[in-house]
Amino acid sequence: MRPTLAQDHPTTLCGRAHLSAQSLTDEPPAVLDASSRSARDAYDQTDVLHYALTLEISNLNTGANNCTVTGTNVMTIRSKSESLSEFTFRLHSNYTLTTLTVTDGMTVIPVTAAQPSNTTRVVSLNRPYALDEEFILTVGYTGTSISLDDSIDVTTQGGTPIVYTLSEPFGEYTWWPCKDGDRAQPGDNSDKATMEFSITTPNNYVVPSNGTLQGVDTLSGNRKRYRWATNYPITPYLVSFAATNYNTWTRTYTFPAGPYNPAGTMPVEFYIYPGLDTPTNRTNWEKSLNMMATYRGIYGEYPFVSEKYGIYNFNYGGGMEHQTITGQGSFSESLTAHELAHQWWGDMITCKNWGHIWLNEGFATYSECLWEERKAGGINSAAYIAAINARRPSSNGATGSTFRYNATSLNSIFSSTYSYNKGAWVLHMLRHVVGDATFFNILAAYRTQYAYGAADTEDFRAVAEAVSGRDLAAFFDQWVYQKGAPTYDWGWQSTNVAGQNYLLARIAQTQTATAGSPPQTLNEYVMPIDLVAIIGGVPQTIVLQNDARSEWFVVPTTAPVTAVSFDPTPWILRGTTSNVAYVPGPPKVVATSPSPGAVLPYGVSQVAVTYHTPVYTSLGDYTLVGDTTGPQSISILSVLGDNPIVVASAGPLPADTYTLTVADNVSAMNSGLALDGELVDANNPSALPSGDGLPGGDAVVRFTILPCETSADIDANCLHDSADVALFVQTLLGLDSDPDHMTRSDMNNNGEADGDDIAAFVAATTGT
Fold first, then answer.
1. Using CA atoms, how far apart are residues 435 and 503, in angstroms rounded to an integer?
2. What are the tens digits of pLDDT across the range 263-277?
3. Residues contacting residue 411 through CB under 8 Å, at least 6 positions apart
């Protein structure tokens, strides 16, 4: 639905934000108390399988905004209890029960109902029903309608009376009896049922409703009966009708075969006030067919393709996404896109309770942006970014959470800032965190798992984590359950170390954290941050994972950086962001020789460590340990200000795998901060530059020295050098009779050192 208050942003959303909590005051205080739920049968002890609702609307009084409603609802119910003795339904005390029976097998049994509040009737069943037993409850009723929060309105359009319903979130009971959560409680939308719905009205009225029209019957007394039915499960608040002298027309939506359906066609039906029936208005509503095809490519086929989609006029400032039949008060393109998207997100998958309303409204608001991105065919990123920025929460999320902790207040539930706009931004940010392909795979998996049911935030999070393979607990906590948004100071600098260019960046979060029970403003928000850097005259996007209050980054670049912009899209819901002078941070290791994971021939006696900035260091900051040979004796060859720092062993390192540890006693000369040394993988050169962005943490590098090559090593010192050449020549000339030298000079192993060994000796010493 759509909020219509002047303070709402100029784009068109749906919502109930303009309705205030004052409309709840007609109910006794006990109904507003969450503990009142405990007095009734547990909601999850029954499963309504089918509603067969028949009602007649008469005595329309537009001045008093009421009419006479006379009806019967036949409910097929399954017990989910081992011993179900009562069933609770909601129906306002304005209505008198004319029939109340239970059909148990073939027997119809009158029963009674207590009325603990203005909203609730508790039926004492004829006997306890065991698990999975079914029974039929028939409720006949009559009375004068009462409109709470526009739940059933009797007014006029163009001088003609109109009756229409809008039950979300608490209003069903004001015009029909059904199982539903208590008024002014978080609710539970999980119990969906199929439905038949017959509505009798004066014969000059046309009646749109849910599902497929089964027929129109002409009755005595200038009346008509419209018979609708839906085989798709529907939650009670989405059941609706309207009745007035509509003009109607139908278009055909043609769809291809897909994973959810064979190829076919579906009617798209329109019901418009005669006074608004213009070619322009018809064209605007008919955009829904193109929208349906566009959403099909994103979300999969329209969920109710075996029945219909429709739009009808009603006297409401925005719209309401009744299943298969949307009520709209305008012809706005974004409103039409929003309400259609609800058929996937809100109708096919419904938020379990009103605290999770962002799963309806945030998804539909975000869908408006996807429509702008794709309506022209292809991907129009600029249009998408303009659309999501137009829906930026007015307070940047600073004072409230996406999750609605107060799910008893209409103003809280249908907050345009939090349920709609911040909800849309949650999806916008998730798209960037997991990447485009994964994001849309998440939506597909979410549809598959919860289609025609209900879900909450944790259900959606579980799907997102399963598809992405990532732990998203922090993301959902900070953006759904907590309040606030980060603010940033950031600075940058370009530097060159040993011929390699680097971008240095510091990011500091500056928001004021709060404490206590959620929702709170956090000290750190964990998000990837895009820096768009001009490198060699070309813009390049560098993504930094910011997960600390103040954090430093060193990023290798192919050329000097001449300009940087911070999250220019933007992808992060953030407050004030200030570009400040770069503040030097902890030193990071940018290179080592040997490099992490290197495998080198025998002969290495020195190890070099290069930092991104000059450091204070000493010999005690370095250890070199072989896996089998143990700690090595080393010395430091560098002096203050040198970069790299070189440490050396007394001679070539024995063959082994070594661990070089650089202790975080090393500190930067320009900042005094300790080494930021951690490597994600000590064997991977791409783990450099080191660090997690914060001072502290040793750098650990692993490398391997191979055994020495003994072939042609006449003096057995693990080196191929001139001494070996001299000894080989002397042995061949008979001037050296040392048995070991003679054996090593016998390169072809024929038992003697002679001219036949020369070619093999040359090859071994030269590597040819």
1. 24
2. 999 999 999 999 999
3. 17, 19, 20, 21
Q: 618: domain CATH number?
A: 2.60.40.1220
Cis peptide upstream of residue 519 (ω within 30 degrees of 0)? yes
In this prediction, residue 305 carries a pLDDT of 98
Please tell me the total count of domains within the chain: 4
> Cis link prior to 556 (omega < 30° from 0)?
no
Calpha distance 643→645 (Å, rounded): 5
> Does residue 273 fall inside a structural domain?
no
User: How would you label 192-217 residue by residue, b for 16+ Cβ within 10 Å and e otherwise?
Assistant: bbbbbbbbbbbeebbbbbbbbbeeee
DSSP helix/strand/coil, 45: helix
Whether residue 98 lies inside any domain: the answer is yes
Q: Is the pLDDT of residue 41 over 70?
A: no
pLDDT band at 38 (very low <50, low <70, confident <90, very high): very low
Element of type H or E holding 75: strand 66-79
Token representation of residue 540: 């390049």
Residue 228 in any domain: the answer is yes
Instruction: Supply 305's token pair.
Output: 């393709």
pLDDT for the residue 767: 67
Q: CA 316 to CA 298: how far, in whole Å?
A: 29
Question: Residue 118: what residue type?
Answer: N
The C-alpha angle 463, 467, 473, rounded to 5 degrees, equals: 60
CA 706/CA 714 separation, integer angstroms: 19
User: 600 with 699, same domain?
Assistant: yes
3-state helix, strand, coil in the chain (%, to 5): 25, 35, 40
What whole-number distance in Å separates Cα of residue 420 and Cα of residue 417?
A: 6
Whether 689 and 541 share a structural domain: no
Q: Pairing relation of β-strands 699-705 and 599-600? A: parallel
Q: Kindly list the distances between the CA atom of residue 293 and the CA atoms of 180, 305, 319, 567, in Å, as whole numbers in the listed order.
A: 34, 12, 21, 32
Give pLDDT, residue 623: 98
* Residue 648 lies in domain: 589-705
Contacts 24+ apart (CB under 8 A), 252-259: 253/289, 253/292, 253/293, 253/302, 253/309, 255/293, 255/296, 255/301, 255/302, 255/305, 258/296, 258/300, 258/301, 259/300, 259/301
Q: Which residues neighbour 217 within 8 Å (Cβ) at sequence distance 6 or greater?
A: 224, 225, 227
Task: State yes or no: pLDDT of 6 exceeds 80.
Answer: no
Q: Are residues 615 and 680 in the same domain?
A: yes
> Do residues 597 and 699 share a domain?
yes
- Of the three residues 579, 603, 621, the one that is the final residue of a domain is 579
CA 212, CA 468: separation in Å to the nearest integer? Answer: 38
> 116 vs 38, 39, 47, 137, 517, CA distance in Å?
12, 9, 22, 19, 34
Query: Which one, of 583, 513, 579, 522, lies nearest residue 547 by Cα?
Result: 522
CATH of residue 195's domain is: 2.60.40.1730
Note the pLDDT tens digit of each residue in 312-327.
999 998 999 999 999 9
Same domain flag for 80 and 140: yes
What pLDDT, in 10s, does the model give residues 547-597?
999 999 999 999 999 999 999 999 999 999 999 999 999 999 999 999 999
Closest CA relative to residue 326, chosen from 153, 168, 209: 209
Residues 62, 152, single domain; the answer is: yes
> What does pTM read for this prediction?
0.90
Tens of pLDDT, residue by residue over 350-405, are 999 999 999 999 999 999 999 999 999 999 999 999 999 999 998 888 889 999 99
